[in-house]
Design brief:
With about 110 residues, the protein is α/β, with parallel strands linked by helices. It has a single domain, classed as 3-Layer(aba) Sandwich (Glutaredoxin). It contains four helices and five strands, in the order E-H-E-H-E-H-E-E-H. The chain starts with a strand and ends with a helix.
């Protein structure tokens, strides 16, 4: 994981994501998930490109089932974009960087 990617857990999700003043891109993943591993470099790249504008974090669904369940994560990878503590975009499955970038640009105005 890149240095700009925050490890999100059941215990820090509220403070790191819901209370954040900036948009937060959250990748729900698991170590055994092939598509999750394929998405990881894209998430890391976005974390670098949007450093200081967007927070980027990852939730291991195996280790943090409470958070995954509360957002109805039934398939991984699932990427949620939060703004002001609310979900403003949702991507299920392997998504390309252009779609994520487009959504981020929309939220940043």
């Amino acid at each position: 994981m890149a240095g700009n990617v925050v490890v999100l857990t059941d215990s820090n999700f509220q403070s790191e994501v819901l209370d954040s003043q900036e948009p937060v891109l959250v990748d729900f993943w698991a170590p055994w998930c092939g598509p999750c591993k394929m998405l990881a470099p894209t998430i890391d790249a976005l974390a670098g490109e949007y450093a200081g504008k967007v927070r980027v974090g990852k939730v291991n669904t195996d280790d943090n089932p409470k958070t995954a369940t509360s957002y109805n994560i039934s398939a991984i990878p699932t990427v949620l974009l939060f703004k002001g503590g609310q979900i403003v975009d949702r991507f299920v499955g392997l998504v390309n960087k252009d779609k994520l970038t487009s959504s981020l640009k929309t939220q940043l105005g």
